[in-house]
Amino acid sequence: MEKEAYVRHGRPSKEQLELTLARVLASVLEGHGVRTETGLDRPTRTALTAIAHAHPSATEELVEAALRSFSGQLDGGNAARSREESDRKLRQRAAEMKFPN
Questions:
Q1: Cys-Cys link to 66, which of 3, 34, 47, 92 (CB 3.0-4.6 A)?
Q2: Beta-carbon neighbour count of residue 34 at 10 Å?
Q3: CA distance readout (Å), 31 to 28, 34, 60, 72, 73
Q4: pTM attached to this predicted model
């Protein structure tokens, strides 16, 4: 019998993301890395990677930072900050461009 591949359509639900965070957090606390295709956003993956890099001396502050970052993913704050930073960079590049008349 063939095994069916699990294919997720659309964005992961809050419950799926919370389960993923719990699994990845447990993994990084053991010193393992973070896969990119988890459904977690870049700021959250970066915070989790810091925990893995600190192994075996990960601090409560690093864990709290990862949880705050995950909160930002759920409430849209991380995405908003990313858009603001991209917009700022585009405005800066546009202001630096000089077009001949």
A1: 47
A2: 19
A3: 5, 10, 15, 24, 23
A4: 0.79
Closest among 72, 95, 81 to 21, alpha carbons compared: 72
Tens-place pLDDT, residues 15-43: 999 999 999 999 999 999 999 899 999 99
What amino acid occupies position 77? G
Domain ranges, ordered by start, for the chain: 14-95
Bond prior to 56 in cis (omega within 30° of 0): yes
Angle at alpha carbon of residue 71, lines to 66 and 83, rounded to 5°: 100
Q: Crossing angle for the helix pair 14-29 and 60-75, nearest 10 degrees?
A: 160
Report the distance separating Cα 29 and Cα 25, nearest Å.
6
